[in-house]
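Could you join me in thinking about how sequence relates to backbone shape in a protein? We need material for that, and I hope you will provide a protein of your own picking. Label the sequence line and the structure token line clearly, so we can match residues to local backbone shapes. Would you write everything just below, so we can both look at the same thing?
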Amino acid sequence: MNKVSMLVLAVFLSISMQAFGNAEDKSEEKLPQTLEQAVDRIVSNLKEDDKSTVKNTPFNNLIQYHHGWGTGIRNSFGLWGRNKELTVSICGPDECHPDDASMEIIYGVWNKLNGNDTRYKPNTEQP
């Protein structure tokens, strides 16, 4: 991973922790209950430079944010079991792993910043 990617990850982790605070201090009522609420909360707390960075990251490269930013999302939004409502909103009644749920939130942020529906999945397959 190059220095720029590592810096971006550090910035996102910092933003996630500042925006959401300590997950242990949050009550269930304060956690987002839907993918759309989670995405809206993140987007509203991102600085313009960070919005631009996410918006201009190719969809297939969003996985680079899994550690750092994704960790902050998983911990802050209770994806390790405290927030079943959010997990079900993201993945359906079968739920999913917190890693997968946080990536769906990251995809949702990218989508919102790029003017797409929150749950949009671009065709990224190469012909």
The chain has six helices and no strands. The radius of gyration is 14 Å.
